[in-house]
Design a protein that fits this description.
7 helices, about 40% helix, about 15% strand, about 210 residues
């Protein structure tokens, strides 16, 4: 059965009354009062946590077709990327697509870098998302070319050697503070993701 064609197309903004964070999206429908609030991942988590009654949707503009909606949505979201209250993770259009410009990628990275898993995914989903990322990183590492893995391992090893050369009294299990992002932690993971490898270290080029 062919997909039903809708005759109403618009850009909307849904805002959480409690956190004041908002999501911008597009919707096509045949019923203007269908109760649709949005489908963004973080927005769904927000609705589950705070309830539909604490979210308000406002239609920003109507368009004659879906294509015009997508084009204008992308322009609007790109203007908002970097705003801490904006919870859009992509530039919009047809869902999640890895086709951002380098400028947009930097804005998204800067927006999320200072947020915890709880802030991004909500208390109920934070641990699940954290485990998914760990598993994803492990799978990616296993699928990485052996020579590249050697390069990464050597880079971590050299970072550790350089650090302990400068700090001979330090112990691996001792808490260390990254000078670039102020993260405090211990173990190899600190040296894998912080210090010279920290994404806030503008000198570091991966």
């Amino acid at each position: 059965m062919p997909r039903k064609k809708h005759n109403i197309h618009y850009i909307y903004i849904t805002t959480c009354k409690i956190t004041k964070r908002y999501y911008i999206g597009i919707h096509s429908t045949s019923n203007i009062n269908d109760g649709y609030l949005g489908s963004g991942k973080i927005l769904r988590n927000s609705i589950r946590k705070y309830g539909k009654e604490n979210h308000i949707k406002k239609i920003l503009e109507f368009f004659p077709n879906r294509e015009d909606c997508e084009k204008n949505e992308t322009l609007l979201i790109n203007e908002k990327i970097g705003d801490n209250f904006c919870i859009n993770l992509t530039s919009g259009g047809k869902g999640f697509r890895m086709n951002h410009t380098e400028e947009t990628k930097i804005k998204i990275s800067n927006t999320l870098s200072n947020k915890t898993y709880v802030q991004i995914h909500g208390e109920n989903n934070a641990e699940l998302e954290r485990e998914k990322r760990k598993k994803g990183a492990l799978i990616q590492w296993k699928n990485t070319d052996v020579e590249i893995r050697k390069i990464i391992s050597n880079k971590i090893s050299n970072t550790l050697k350089e650090y302990f050369k400068k700090n001979p009294k330090s112990k691996l299990l001792k808490k260390h503070k990254c000078p670039y992002c102020d993260t405090i932690g211990s173990g190899n993971s600190m040296f894998r993701w912080h210090f010279d490898n920290c994404k806030k270290n503008t000198i570091f080029v991966p």
